């Protein structure tokens, strides 16, 4: 059976510029009913119909899980990406009808934690907006450390400070403020769980330091959706459906497979959930793996690829799709 | 209209019975003349009218009697209901799910009204009319999971999802086929399935776990499981083995039809929205052989399934002692003719 999610028909109820890079979008159900309840850390996949092209990008829900009248997401404009964020910024206006997925949570709070220690970098703040709202409603113990480039790019820093006061610590790159990570990680009470969301470099740094300082891996949680990267076009043969397709420069392999009328299952479209894992039948060339799902050994084996974020350069690639 | 609830017992004098309409809606679990494990999971969507799938949470004529039996089990052994401290939110998720589904499917028996977090729940068959604050445990007589599962047929396991695994961290288990919540509480998916023969080697649990951890909100799934029970006893727990284990020695050719019951579990799997946990309702249906064989196709097929069942499975399901007697009794109802494919009676 397909493991995709149910879809929701929504209308854009508001579009709010937050700062020079980030815009917030509000969605309500078209039929006026309440949206499904969700848990802090959940994302939805937003379908963007851009002329002939359809993009499907995941965004964390950032409203309070207690408020299901509307969902909110925040989108950071990426001028050199594949165009999804530019489409959202330029073409999505209040009143536009869109389709989003049911919420999926791949970055769930561990509710056993005595304390939740959260580390955010840049737009990685969004899942923590929902998680802090959820924990505050239940009287949960949390502390959030948030790194941003400048005060004016500190998306929602003011809102968080107002809501949670001293539970929020801010660090500004332009003032050369840095988290004293080793000290922070060495002074937590037993039963603390660590959550990190931000750029890949930050996630790797935090995970490495946590491991060196003896944190058990099951107490360290991270979310990093790899955005599909643009790259050279390449040709692929889909052996099961008997099709040959070309993956465009700005297209992901998964999008090209879907454009050919083949629908592999997916949930996150960011190399995390494992749903679209695809067997390689043969290849002559090199893989550009960008996912967090396959092991390094699987990456080296040349037998599997995650088409949502990974690409290929070479003469031929045959997939079991 | 509405359901006429039977007055009956699942212990002592064992007055449990299925009405004729209930026999034909019994979820017969064999789609062919043989049985082997498979990852037989399918989407839990509404099925035909008059079947147990007419509503996603089924309420039937045994509801009131089953809830009375559950109360008796809990009075003797409160550890049949446990919820680890981090599972309270999941308990509220389950309360919402069961109230919504029961009110949706059986409006003549159940009513849920909500005004923000002020909820009113009316359960007419059990004479309950409570108003409470959703999320505030102090406004209910029990914790949210215990409160609602004292009013819902079937056992319920709530599984926490973390570290790529599922953990049995809460549950209400009083109608089980010889397993113990008190023993399994806190275990992960592989640990609590450790006693099952053959399936580990076939990689069934690895695949099943992968599927279950990806269950999505609004897309529940289901499967059927089965065993056999002597006398219509809901509580066949390890804790009470001394009460029901010896029943297996009491089967004779004369009493097979009345004593031997096919026990089918309709297991479903639902993603819980607030806690991101999974709830696993295990709904038990019993049917005595005399009732089952009123459907000739089921009689023929059950004979072939039980006769040809691999020895390990017969042992695991606890059939060894009475299998020859049962097979002999069923063989008289099997004329060897072909049975049609699928579950339903002809």
Short summary of the structure?
The complex is a heterodimer of chains A (about 325) and B (about 350). Chain A is α/β, with parallel strands linked by helices.
How is this structure best described in words?
The complex is a heterodimer of chains A (321) and B (346). Chain A has 321 residues and is α/β, with parallel strands linked by helices. Chain A has three domains: 7-105, Translation factors (Elongation Factor Tu (Ef-tu), domain 3), CATH 2.40.30; 115-223, Nucleotide-binding domain of ferredoxin-NADP reductase (FNR) module (Rossmann fold), CATH 3.40.50.80; 234-319, Ubiquitin-like (UB roll). Chain A has helices at 84-91, 126-138, 157-164, 181-186, 200-212, 253-259, 296-301, and strands spanning 7-17, 22-29, 42-50, 53-60, 71-76, 97-101, 104-105, 115-121, 142-148, 168-172, 192-197, 220-223, 234-238, 243-247, 278-288, 304-305, 311-319. Chain A starts with 6 loop residues before the first strand and ends with a strand. By secondary structure, chain B is α+β, with helices and mostly antiparallel strands. Chain B has one domain. Chain B has helices at residues 20-24, 63-76, 88-105, 144-149, 181-184, 189-192, 204-213, 241-244, 256-259, 289-292, 296-308, 311-316, 323-331; strands at residues 42-43, 81-83, 110-115, 118-123, 128-133, 155-162, 165-172, 221-230, 260-271, 278-288. In chain B, a hairpin with a 4-residue loop joins strand 4 (118-123) and strand 5 (128-133). The longest helix of chain B has 18 residues, at 88-105. Chain A binds chain B through residues 1, 3-6, 36-39, 41-42, 65, 102-105, 108-112, 134, 138, 218, 267, 273-275, and chain B through 41-43, 84-87, 89, 160-163, 210-211, 214, 216-219, 221, 273-276.
